């Protein structure tokens, strides 16, 4: 997969070269390019923003700088691309969206700053290619860079070969619509807290049932919206008996 990120703070994206993502880049599973938006400015101040039409606080990112940058970045690689624009006003980014993105050949991210990017940039590209405005949560960050780190990490770990054990992703929270239950490792007793007996029993059926029950309990308590969104056939009789 090819990922391009356009930003006025390329240094913010340095973590894309670390740990699991860095290894995916090193082994060629992921190809990441970070571009400085200011390279497409033509004035001495390299201005990327201007005052908002209609008045109000803050500044808006200029469309012509973004247009030149995205035209060049998109043209630099022939693979079909999806443009992703992080914004708190976007659709929520979910694990399902991460799976959909992991199936793409190319993602191009446009990082907003200030009050965001002139809306005509999204409208212009949406006429000729898939464009998503996405939010990583109901809070406001200062820029799109951290949102891009979140999305790229969620997507990259789903690419075949990136995780050491592909079962990890298959059994994570959200894979079956539920939050994952608690996990334990050695020692058996730590500061008076014992690991649940069933996990040490070696009875795989009982362990699977226990894990499912804890996932159901945790999800009902913390995210009742996820329980409500389960398809009708998602719960079996044993689940309902809980
Ligand atoms: N005026 C915008 C609004 O109220 O919707 C907020 C702009 S925010 C200060 C600046 C940039 O941070 C946005 O253009 C976006 O790139 C990024 N950003 C902030 N919060 C975000 C979130 N929850 N999800 C995704 N991106 C976000």
Outline the structure in words.
- There is one protein chain.
- The chain has 242 residues and is an alpha/beta fold.
- It folds into 2 domains: 2-156, SPOUT methyltransferase, trefoil knot domain (Alpha/beta knot, 3-Layer(aba) Sandwich); 171-241, Trp Operon Repressor, Chain A (Orthogonal Bundle), CATH 1.10.1270.
- It is 34% helix and 17% strand.
- It is built from 9 helices and 9 strands.
- It has helices spanning 19-26, 63-75, 95-102, 119-126, 145-156, 166-170, 204-222, 224-228, 237-241, and strands spanning 2-7, 31-36, 49-50, 60-61, 81-92, 106-110, 131-135, 189-190, 193-194.
- A 5-stranded parallel beta sheet has the order 2-1-6-5-7. A two-stranded antiparallel ribbon has the order 3-4. Strands 8-9 form a two-stranded antiparallel ribbon.
- Helix 3 (95-102) crosses helix 5 (145-156).
- The longest helix has 19 residues, at 204-222.
- The radius of gyration is 22 Å and the shape is elongated.
- The model has no long low-confidence stretch (mean pLDDT 96).
- S-adenosylmethionine (SAM) is lined by residues 86-89, 111-113, 115-116, 135-137, 139-144, 147.
Summarize the structure.
The protein is of the alpha/beta class and 242 residues long. 34% of the residues lie in helices and 17% in strands.
């Amino acid at each position: 997969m090819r990922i391009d990120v356009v930003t006025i703070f390329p240094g913010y994206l340095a973590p894309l070269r670390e740990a699991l993502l860095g290894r995916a880049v090193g082994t060629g599973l992921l190809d990441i390019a970070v571009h400085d938006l200011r390279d497409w400015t033509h004035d001495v101040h390299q201005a990327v923003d201007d005052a908002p039409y209609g008045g109000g606080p803050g500044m808006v990112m200029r469309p012509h700088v973004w247009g030149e940058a995205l035209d060049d970045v998109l043209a630099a690689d022939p693979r079909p691309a999806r443009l992703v624009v992080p914004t708190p006003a976007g659709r929520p980014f979910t694990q399902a969206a991460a799976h959909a993105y992991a199936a793409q050949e190319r993602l191009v991210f446009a990082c907003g700053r200030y009050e965001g990017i002139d809306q005509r940039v999204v409208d212009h590209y949406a006429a000729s290619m898939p464009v998503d405005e996405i939010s990583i949560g109901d809070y406001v960050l200062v820029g799109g860079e951290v949102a891009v780190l979140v999305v790229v990490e969620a997507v990259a770990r789903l690419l075949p070969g990136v995780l050491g054990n592909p079962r990890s992703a298959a059994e994570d929270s959200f894979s079956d619509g539920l939050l994952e239950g608690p996990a334990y490792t050695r020692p058996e007793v730590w500061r008076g807290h014992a690991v649940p007996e069933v996990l040490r029993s070696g009875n795989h059926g009982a362990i699977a049932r226990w894990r499912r029950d804890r996932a159901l309990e945790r999800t009902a308590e913390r995210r009742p919206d996820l329980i409500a969104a389960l398809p009708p056939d998602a719960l079996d009789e044993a689940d309902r008996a809980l």
